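Subject: Chromosome partitioning protein, ParB family structure
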Amino acid sequence: MTASFKPVSVAIGDLTAHPANVRSNSPETYDPENIAHLKASIAVLGLLQPLLVQKLDGKYAVLAGGRRHAALKELVAEKAAKGFTAKTKVECRLVPEDCDVTTALSLAENITQAPMNAIDEFEAFARMMKVDGQTPETIAKTFGTTVAAVKGRLRYGLIHPDIRAAARAKAITLDTMKAFAEHPSQDVQKEVFEALTTEDSYLQAYTVRQALKSRGVQISDDIGAFVRADYEARGGAVAADLLEEHSVLEDAALVEVILLEKLGAAAEEARAKLGLAWADAMVRYDYATMADYGRVYPGPIEPDEAAQKRIDEITAELEKLQLEMEDEGLEDDAYTALYERVDALEDEARDLQEAYGAEDLARAGVIASWSGGQVTLHVGLVRPEDKQEASQSPSGNQTSKDEPDPGEIAYPASLAEDLKTERAMALGAAMAMNPEATLDLTLFKLVSDVLASGMSVTQAIKIDARKECRSHAKMDEIDGASLEQVAAAHDALDLSWLDEARSPADQFAAFRALEAAEKATLVAYATASTTQSCFARDRQRDSLMHDFEIEIMPDIRAHWTPNAALFNRFKKAWLLKILGEDLGLAQEAVTLASSSKKEIVAFCDKLFAEPFATLTDAQRAAVAAWCPPMMQTAGSATDEAPTVEISEPDTGVAKAA
C-alpha cells in the first residue's frame, strides 16, 4: 500500500494515545526520566518531526510519536515552559480512518530509523559549538543533559579529523580514538597517531595513553597539581581542555625543574630542622643508585624534665588507646583511627627520647623525592665517600633495639574481603591471557551443567552472560597490574562484529565468521570478567578450579604486586614480622623497629616496587614470591593457613569463592 498522509495542525490538548501504537504496552517508555532529553530538545527547538495521528472518537490518536506526545504533555504541565499550552498546535500527519495497516505504520516508524553513529554524535556537538556558536551550557539545555556530559562528547568530537576518519574506517577502535582526547592539542594527537601507525601493528588505547603521557603532564596528575601554580606563574604553556582536569602542562622540562626546586626546598627545610649536613632532591628515588649510600639513625638521649613529663602523658594515653583497640566489636574505621593516633604518639615519644649524634650530623643528610603523590623524605643518608667513617654510628642505635616480637598475623574481615577481590582480578587477567584454556573451561562448564547429573561442576565462575561486579574499599589505591593487563586484552579484541548499527542477527553472522582463535579470545575475555571474589581453592571443595588456576596462574605475582594500600592496613608488628621472617631481612626489621609505621610502609612499598640491588639472591627471591598465603594459587596447608577474622555464609557460592 502506498499512502500520502495529509498534514494537519492539532492542539496538544486534542491529542490522545492510539491503541495500535506498538509502544502502548511499555509505559516505562514514557516515564519522565526516559523523555527528559526529548522534552528539553522540543522546548528549545520545537517539534522537528510531525506526529502520525488518526481520528478516533473526536480526538486525534497518536499512532507514531508517543514519546514526543508525552514530552509535549510534560511541557504543558510545566507552567514555566513558555509557549506550550493545551491550545498550542503542533504539526501532524493524518492517517485516514479506514486505514487497515495502522500497527504496521507504527512499527515501521519505530524500527526503520538507524541508530546514531557515536562519532556522528561527537562531531555534531562540536559543530554546534564551532559553527552555530553554541556553548556547552546551551547544548546541555537543548538536550536535557549535564554540562559535563556535553563536554565529554565535545572532547571526542574535537579529536584530530584524521584520527576520527580512521575510527570511521574501522582502522582503529572507538576506544582507541577516545584515548587521543587525553591530550587536547590536535597537533600532538596527529604526531602521536602518525608515530604509532608507522608500524604494521594493532593500535591499542593503552599504547596511545602511554605515548601521550610523554607529551606533557595533565593538571589533574599529582605532579601537575603540585607544580601548577609555579608553572603558570613562570609562563609555562598550557594546552586547555574543555574539561579543566584534562588540560595539559606542555613543557615537561619546566615541570621537572619546578618539581626538583620544590623537592629541594622540602629537603632543605628538613635538613635545617634536624641539623644535618646536606640536602638534595631527586624526582624518583633510585634504590639501585642509592645502594652505595649508608644511613645513620638517631640514638637514645636523656630527656629533660619537660620532655619526661610529656613522655609520661603519652605513655598513659597509649595504655588507654590499647585497651580501646582490644574491643572486638570495634569497627574497622574506628580501629584505623586509633592506630593512626597510636603511631603519632609513638613518633612524638621517640623524638623526645632520640637524637642524632654530633658526628652523624656532620656527615649525614636528607634527600627528598616524589612518591605516591607526595614529597617523601629519606633522612640520615651518608654519602659513599663518608661511609667508612660513619660505619660505626656513635649513636649506637644499630644494636640498641631488641628484635621485635611481632605476634601472629590475623587478617581483619574487611581486608580479607578486599584481598579476595584483588585475587579475583589477578585470576581474571590470567584467564584473559590464556584464551584456549579458558575457552575449554567455559565450554566444559556449559555442557557439564546441562548434561551431567547432580550439582554444578563449579560455582567459581558465572557463565550466565553477566559481568561480575567487584567491590573494594580502596580500589583507587591497589596495584593496577591486573587492570592494565585486562585493559590491554580488551583493546586487542576485534569488536567490529558488535557494531551497534547492525541487527543482532547480523552481529551473530559476523561473529560466526570470525576465526576460531578470535572466538576463543572473546570467550576467554568474557569468562574472565565473571571471576568472583576468591582465595586459593581447596582441592576437595572445587578440584576443577583448583587445578585450572594452578595451570593458568601458577604465580599471582605476575598479575599483582603488594603495595602501600595493603601495607597500610597491616599492623606495625605484622610488617616487621614479614620483613624479618618471610623475607629474611632481619637486620632491616631490627632497624625499622624504632621507625613509625608510615616509614615502614614506605620502605615495604619501595622494596616490592623495585627490589633493592643490595638484596641477596635468597632475599630477592623471597620478595619476588611473597603474598598473603591464601592469595597464592597453590594455597597453604590447612594447619599452616593464616588466621582470617571472617565468617562466610554457608552457601555454595561462598564456598566456591
